[in-house]
Design goal:
alpha/beta, 6-stranded mixed beta sheet, two-stranded antiparallel ribbon, 21% helix, 40% strand, globular
Length: 145
């Protein structure tokens, strides 16, 4: 399981011209689920996303986490993160989880994030989405568990 996180000052996701999720200051998480991922991977990635210190403190150092700043989280399913791009000119998705399993783990991640006290917004699984964001920094990290 991997998550590409971007520190943002705002973000939203639209499906067919309708906003389905929107946040203020916080993180956009593009969530990729692979075949071998389990519920344990969900918990581990959630802990990392919630506590990864990428927000600046009063000294301008990256010392604060999403939880520290009471930031918001926009979770967007991202099938293409599971791509193998090492060979050829076309990505292979052989390591991606089947849609039913990927959706179940995506939903579990969202549910557990909400239960942990994080304000969460989402995209729509398997939809054609348009994501608008203002990457603050820019700051982007690929977290793998």
């Amino acid at each position: 399981m991997q998550g590409l996180i971007q520190r943002v000052s705002f973000a939203k996701v639209e499906v067919a011209g309708v906003t389905v999720g929107e946040i203020e200051k916080g993180l956009v998480l593009l969530l990729g689920v692979e075949k071998e991922d389990t519920e344990a991977h969900v918990a581990k990635l959630l802990h990392k996303v919630s506590n990864y210190r990428i927000f600046t403190d009063n000294d301008g150092k990256m010392n604060l986490s999403l939880k520290d700043i009471a930031g918001e989280l926009l979770v967007v399913s991202q099938f293409t993160l599971a791509a193998d791009t090492q060979k050829g000119m076309r990505p292979s998705f052989s390591s991606a989880a089947v849609p039913e399993r990927a959706n179940a783990l995506y939903e579990l991640f969202v549910e557990q994030a909400k239960e942990s006290g994080v304000k969460v917004a989402t995209g729509q699984f398997a939809a054609d989405m348009q994501v608008t964001l203002c990457n603050d920094g820019p700051v982007t990290f690929n977290l793998k568990v």
